[in-house]
Prior knowledge:
Low-confidence stretches: none
Protein name: Luciferase-like domain-containing protein
Number of helices: 11
CATH class: Alpha Beta
Mean pLDDT: 95
Organism: Protofrankia coriariae
Number of domains: 1
Keywords: Oxidoreductase
Pfam family, one: Bac_luciferase
Distance between the termini: 17 Å
CATH architecture: Alpha-Beta Barrel
Shape: globular
Order of helices and strands: EHHEEEHEHEHHEEEHEHEEHEHEH
Helix content: 40-55%
Domain Luciferase-like: 24-245
CATH superfamily: Luciferase-like domain
Strand order of the largest sheet: 1-2-5-6-9-10-11-14
Amino acid sequence: MTEAVNIGLSVFSDDLARYPAPERRRLLGLAAEVGLQHLHCGDHVSFHGGYGWDGLTNATMLLNLQDTLPVHVGIYQLPLRHPTTVTRQLSTLCEMHPGRLVLGVGVGGDDRKEMEVCGVDPRTRGKRMDESLQIIRRQMTGEAVTFVGEIFNLVDAAVHPATDPPVPLLVGGRGDAALRRTASLGDGWLAIWASPRRVRSFIEQVDEEAARIGRTGIAWRHGIIVWCEFGPDPDRAARRLAENMQNVYKLPREAFEKWSPAGTPEAVAEFCAPYLDTGITDLTFITQGEDLAASIQSAAEVRKLLGLPAPV
């Protein structure tokens, strides 16, 4: 399984915006040159008082600024959007960049206010997710979808051109609902803050549930997102990491410290090594402390330390 794991780095639009346009292109080109295998961006509409960025808008920007690396979005707050408009965005984006997008979706809920300001009842987020995934999967084929659900009712809702190839849809979450959703409606699972044992067990259960319901022939791709911080001084890196994560999630350091390594690339590689044999195909780093060029080089160094082959 080790040979199949791809290493990527999350790029924040506010970080990239500090550089002039030619430097943005150079930096993202550097990511491919040093052996990273994908870029990543997150998604929030109005998180904890207004923080956020639009995941598909940023994915389009990252794809347009470089010509080789795919872009992964995660976690996209799908219940905050109408599925037909999301399919339209995927169709339009993939006309220019077919096969270069992976969409990881989640139900959200860490900040219920984020849903309320979008006019969404937080109690409906699970049902919205299930119905949206069903609709998007069908619409990406070009089918005129008629759908009658608890949330959405559509009659001959078509989106052309078809998204070809279809965008892989990964499901985030840690509970039974996420497991069922991944097995029945997803192309894989996207983990965060989970132990290697938990990741391995969850992926095995996804396989078992998919087999139970007769869903076969899926080219599964499972990933994990790792918040981390690089730097020669582990204590300083840990403090910087804690500050960044507390600013985003409004949680104390203890809530995520166990699953968020800080220090040299060697230390981060040591933390990540047990995940290589869990069944994941993608490992994404989120880091905000160093300048972007240094973060790119550090993530690439982790790939080498893990013994992963250079991309062809």
